Amino acid sequence: MACETKSWLVMFLVFLVANCMQHCVHGVSQVPCLFIFGDSMSDSGNNNELPTTSKSNFRPYGIDFPLGPTGRYTNGRTEIDIITQFLGFEKFIPPFANTSGSDILKGVNYASGGSGIRNETGWHYGAAIGLGLQLANHRVIVSEIATKLGSPDLARQYLEKCLYYVNIGSNDYMGNYFLPPFYPTSTIYTIEEFTQVLIEELSLNLQALHDIGARKYALAGLGLIGCTPGMVSAHGTNGSCAEEQNLAAFNFNNKLKARVDQFNNDFYYANSKFIFINTQALAIELRDKYGGSNLRPFQ
After folding, report:
1. Span of the secretion signal (predicted)?
2. Domain boundaries of the chain, sorted by first residue
């Protein structure tokens, strides 16, 4: 399954950087740098020193990872680790919290477990680095890159060649809207209104990235969040997936895809490229190929 997943994702990423697989040179990355924004799907250690219970720098996390537990929320590599290797990088992209001595010209990982598009998302665990704060951290790195290269203009020219991977939003539903004991969000917005709020806030952050040099974006949609153990336990029926939560993610993805189309039109003049990765469709595709249950698309 991991092999199929990475092949599907890399197909989009290779197209994004306008580079065909047959032209790849072994050991040479297809983009000079990769910047990662997201949540626990991509976090590689940014939560380790935060005052939060959302941590993964202990066993059994990392039992199949060469460096052991590092703060990745998995037994081995994350999805973006696999993408990083397929893009030709010799090393994994370091977390922002541990960039001292690392080559920031290759990129930085800003993702934080439990975080969301909304800054308050995930704070029932303790501290979290929401998307807005991740962007603020990126501005720090951009300033350091400008110093390394000699000027802001040279930094901008370099950053325009990089890939910006964004995979965030699941926790805004699972760890915010559908968690009324901790958040009043569901009393303020209908689910349709909240989804639109998320799209608008995400769009503002993507435009801010564009203003400081981002041109190549890979935007991952939300997966089947209603099929996660927590959502099945809290909202499912007889062990089935939670349909309301899956439908919310489906609608978010539709709106995000439409916004990607809009951005590709609006920023065409700047030679920008936005790609939407439909992770829900991928989950269904993998189910059909390898078998599984309680996974079905919404019509």
Report:
1. 1-27
2. 23-290
Rounded to 5 degrees, what are φ and ψ at 228?
-75, 150
Tokens read off for 61: 């996390």
Structure tokens belonging to residue 70: 């590092």
Other CB atoms within a 10 A radius of the CB of residue 286 amount to 17
Q: How confident is the model at residue 9 (pLDDT cuts 50, 70, 90)?
A: low
Looking at the DSSP bridge assignments, the partners of residue 35 are 108, 164
* Angle value at C-alpha 134, between 133 and 135, nearest 5 degrees: 90
Q: Is 133 exposed, middle or buried (0-12, 13-18, 19+ CB in 10 A)?
A: middle
One of 3.30.9.10, 3.90.226.10, 3.20.20.140, 3.40.50.1110 is the CATH number of 23-290, namely 3.40.50.1110
Sign of the CA dihedral 120, 126, 131, 137?
A: positive
pTM of the predicted protein model:
0.90
Query: How many CB atoms neighbour CB 26 within 10 A?
Result: 5
Residue 16: what pLDDT? 45
